[in-house]
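Chapter review: from sequence to fold.
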Amino acid sequence: MSKTPLSLLLLLPALAGAAQLTELETRWLTAGLPALNYARQELGLPLDITVQPQAGPNDVPLALGFEDGRCKLVLSMRGNPAAESVLDGVPEAQRAILIEAMTAHEIGHCWRYVHHQWHMLPAGFVEAGQQRASSADLLEQARIQRATQREEGYADLLALSWTARRHPAQYTQVYRWMRQVRQPAAGGSHDTTAWLQLAADRAVFSSSSPLFEQVSMLWSKGLFSSD
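The token string follows.
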């Protein structure tokens, strides 16, 4: 275990009396601290951090859950040998910016949830086309997959918009890594190609309008090609 930095204790008072963070957990939270500070101090999002004592077999290292109107950023790194597999091949010196982007991605999820937009389409949009399946359960699964895909697209754009604004020189690195990570998900609930292809050029986030306004506009544009 490593000593929890004061910066994390100030942001997350609940950790003060808890077990110390591991070196890996500290490194990830420290890398994501700018996005966490923005979420809590500037956006006022109700965000808590949960450290799982033991990761499950299918847990990802960083995920977001919701409980009692609050967002729960969940770290599942203990007992998880694949905790950093998403960063395989990335030099150590370049990992912090990607972890920060992942944290911003989760903040995008939290913002949608807190503002009662989770799994909701923008005003004026409706589900298009007819889907058929052998059972109502399969139709419901397909609906949830589409809704999840949209949320992942929104959060990916938020991560890229955050990077464009805070780390413009590293935008291309983050974008290329994100395309690589999303490639195996082609056709699935985490296939965000329809949105990522709109953000290949950092210039799409060059407007002075608020961060979430830019993201929402580009996300809506991607909806036309995602369904």
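Two observations follow directly from the output. The chain has two domains: 6-89, 119-226. The mean pLDDT is 86.
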